[in-house]
Predict the structure.
Amino acid sequence: CCNSKGGVSSETQKERINNQLANIEAMLIDITTSSNPPTWLLMAGHYPVFSAGDHGDTYELIQYLLPLITKYGVHAYFCGHDHISEHLTYESTHYF
């Protein structure tokens, strides 16, 4: 699991990311295919997908999470991290 410097290896990181994405997608499939789908599909995370703040966009989320947000029609994504208030819209999803 660890690299030569004691940190998490790239292989372990990749495995963890893939597991997280698979779990997120499984939840989205369950929610969107249920007999009583939600009126609003909301998602929350610590880091922003898009941000005009000091930290800017999170490219890993754009690469890995944004396709799921788009595919399953998430209405809004809420986050923190940049400690600013903003409202962005991208492909019909609102980002707060």
User: Anything to note?
Assistant: The beta strands are 42-44, 76-78, 88-90, 93-95. The mean pLDDT is 91. Residues 53 and 84 are 7 Å apart (CA to CA).
